[in-house]
Amino acid sequence: MGESQARAEASTPRVGSAAREAIFAQLADTGRSEQVAQRLTDAIILGVLAPGERLPSEPDLSRRFGVALITVREGLGILRDAGLVETRRGREGGSFVTGDAEHGGLLDARLHALTQVELSDMAVYFATILAGCAERAAVRATDAEAERLAAQVSGIDVTTPAAARFDIGGLFLELAVLSQSARLVREQIRVQAEFGPLLLLALDDDDTRVAVLGTSTAIAAAVGAHAPAVARELVSTMVQSLAEGLLTAKTRLHREEVRRDRDAADDVA
Asked: What is the pLDDT of residues 166-184, one digit of tens each?
């Protein structure tokens, strides 16, 4: 087993098992390899599948998704063409998430392309969905589920931005699963795959990571105390804080671009 794979498998449990089950739940339309590719792409973007991690076998994916084996193979082919997974042969072979799956440059490009109004609007929608998940989780979660959530939060690692993004993204998915609403789970996965990686760029800031850890602990406590209004308010506050950090990052990128353009103009002159 390679060092990168060992690290990935060691860190994977930080995303709750329920969130992983949601990613690998059966597909509604069983005839489209694109759906297989999209679900696995979402899992990679969300950090449920970490760089270096081996995917379940093709027969296992076929069983979990409820699709034909050829559909899984076609879906994995789409991921290979996109550079998201690589296939290795031999006894220790299989399909593995590529080591460069974070795509930081792509995220910067997406951030640059979106206006502040668009980012703010996406953050509002994200907060609305996630706050609804937290509210329902506080109502529906059993004591055992609340204890597992608290244990997951206690293991959140904020020592580095990458670790924090992985763990906080996993917390968001777990809150969706604990809502016990299939529709909320699907929508949280969709909106988190679309906007989550951008939103979590705010965790590059040390103070933001520490603050988010404290809020995460309070959210888990609110779920355990069956306090839906408190859980909803805490999630809204967290997403607002992350959105403010994202807008700051957007401003920084703009300033860097202006500075590069000015330097290039000076060189020409």
From this structure: 899 989 999 999 999 999 9
